[in-house]
From TrEMBL:
Alphabetical list of InterPro entries matching this protein: MMPL_dom, Mycobact_MmpL
Name of the protein this chain belongs to: Membrane transport protein MMPL domain-containing protein
Protein family membership: Belongs to the resistance-nodulation-cell division (RND) (TC 2.A.6) family. MmpL subfamily.
UniProt keywords, alphabetically: Cell membrane, Membrane, Transmembrane, Transmembrane helix
Lineage: Eukaryota, Haptista, Haptophyta, Prymnesiophyceae, Isochrysidales
Subcellular location: Cell membrane
């Protein structure tokens, strides 16, 4: 199928928010424009790569859940549940690795570590766990346009993690196995007694007479 078309716009939005926050934060802290002029260029490419990396983890998990038959909202929940820990741990490792630059005696290294630390924290804590799932929930099936998925009959996940059928799916699926068994038990009671030990109606009438 074709790649999801609305996704580049949401990625552009998240990238813009990340770079705006990090640039504004280092300006308010007074650490820029002092230092090396190439720091914004270096951090720009690094933050884009990290943002896209975490986004691939999240959207791939959501797409896999949606392809398995879950509805759009249930797929978002499942994807975030399965890959949220991976994104958080990866962000924590990267933040810990680059935070060592804050203790450098070079202003450029301090700026580099500060920008990456702020960008990774904002991306993993807010963007990938709150903003991106919210946008995808609002877009609905437009997330996958022009690809089309069959109508999902699974709207949510129960406590055990098994898919729960929607009302419309139950309506068109016909009688369930337990309902059919119950119906057979009632019919068997009329003819000669149910399978659960209920006495036949004819025998009950004979005893009464």
């Amino acid at each position: 199928p074709y790649p999801p078309q609305p996704q580049p716009y949401t990625r552009t939005l998240t990238q813009t928010l990340t770079h705006t926050l990090t640039r504004g934060r280092i300006v308010t802290l007074g650490t820029w424009p002092r230092g090396r002029a190439q720091v914004p260029i270096i951090t720009f490419s690094i933050l884009i790569g990290l943002n896209m990396d975490y986004d691939v983890f999240l959207v791939t998990g959501i797409l896999s859940a949606r392809s398995s038959g879950l509805s759009n909202r249930a797929a978002i929940v499942a994807g975030l549940e399965n890959n949220g820990t991976v994104i958080g741990v990866a962000g924590l490792i990267m933040a810990a690795a680059f935070s060592g630059l804050l203790f450098s005696h070079t202003v450029a290294n301090q700026q580099l570590g500060l920008v990456i630390l702020i960008g990774i924290t904002f991306d993993t804590v807010f963007l990938q766990t709150m903003l991106v799932p919210s946008l995808m929930a609002q877009l609905g099936e437009l997330n996958w346009w022009p690809s089309r998925f069959p109508d999902a009959g699974i709207d949510s996940l129960d406590d055990a993690g098994a898919p729960e059928e929607s009302d419309s799916a139950r309506m068109f699926a016909g009688p369930r196995s337990d309902d059919a068994e119950a119906g057979g038990a009632v019919g068997g009671g009329v003819e000669g007694g149910s399978r659960r030990g209920t006495p036949p109606q004819r025998d009950a009438l004979a005893v009464t007479l």
